[in-house]
Amino acid sequence: MKKTALALALTAATGLLVSGCGSDTLKIGASPVPHAEILNFVKDNLAADAGLDFEVVEYQDYVLPNKALAEGDLDANYFQHEPYLLSQEDEFGYDFHALAGVHIEPLGVYSASHASFDELADGAKIGVSNDPANQARGLRLLEAAGAIKLKDTGGDPTISDLAEDSPHQVELIQVEPKLLAVNLPDFDFAVINGNYAIDAGLSPSADAIFLESGEDNPYTNFLVTTTADKDDERLKKLGELLRSPEVKEFIESRWSDGSVIAAF
């Protein structure tokens, strides 16, 4: 009986030790560029002095980081702007909380075969995101560039909202965001998110035919967690570090061409 009690006590103590160690290290999901780069800068230069330990888990798409967060495989993620977050909550019922706004990646229109919209013609194929939030953002950018005219729907536009008096009757093709840059030669023009453009070797400021303004931009990328964990002091600390002067200086020097802009 004594041996059994001792064995149980040791097992319990070991479990507590393992549990304590595991709980101290945060898992943060992120897109490789620029999110993971920014997180790794914090990890390598600021986290230790703040008593913070975290692991960066990279994702190539926009779906899995929220799924992993909802299922408890991540403590937080850093890859999305608020309109996308809200659309994901509406679609999947996620109960998330945006902790800290860090940066903006100006959305751009690119082409592998045309130098400007002066060459835009009826029937031209334009690739746009297939997720509602980024699709609406891209369509508004095309309208701001004078490439299309949208119906006044009173809500977020979709590819079916091209106005009859649009200057060009183009073909708007929905594509998974990460594939737009890869398949750019298949389109006359494509609207590409900043992180995927950078990852494909494109410079938004140099290569985009038309680029979204960073001023008064509602598409700030946030550190996001679950509502249940929004008061976790470690996540609050990470949010503070992501908005620190050191990170702002890193963003401005690393992406001096303006392809990534600090939002604080």
Brief digest:
With 264 residues, the protein is an alpha/beta fold. The protein has helices spanning 2-24, 32-45, 64-70, 82-92, 132-144, 177-180, 194-199, 204-207, 233-242, 245-254; strands at residues 25-30, 53-58, 76-81, 96-104, 108-110, 125-129, 171-175, 189-192, 210-211, 221-226, 261-262.
* Termini gap: 62 Å
- Give a short account of the largest sheet: 6 strands, mixed
Structural category: alpha/beta
Name the CATH class of the largest domain. Answer: Alpha Beta
Instruction: Give the oligomeric state.
Output: single chain
Walk me through the structure:
The structure is a single chain. The chain has 264 residues and is α/β, with parallel strands linked by helices. It has 2 domains: 2-106 and 217-262, D-Maltodextrin-Binding Protein, domain 2, CATH 3.40.190; 108-211, D-Maltodextrin-Binding Protein, domain 2 (3-Layer(aba) Sandwich). The chain contains 10 helices and 11 strands. The strands form 2 sheets. It has a 6-stranded mixed beta sheet with strand order 2-1-3-10-4-11, sandwiched between helices. α2 (32-45) links the parallel β1 (25-30) and β2. It is globular.
Chain-wise SSE layout:
Elements: H1 2-24, E1 25-30, H2 32-45, E2 53-58, H3 64-70, E3 76-81, H4 82-92, E4 96-104, E5 108-110, E6 125-129, H5 132-144, E7 171-175, H6 177-180, E8 189-192, H7 194-199, H8 204-207, E9 210-211, E10 221-226, H9 233-242, H10 245-254, E11 261-262
Parallel strand pairs: 1-2, 1-3, 6-7, 6-8
Antiparallel strand pairs: 3-10, 4-10, 4-11, 5-8, 5-9
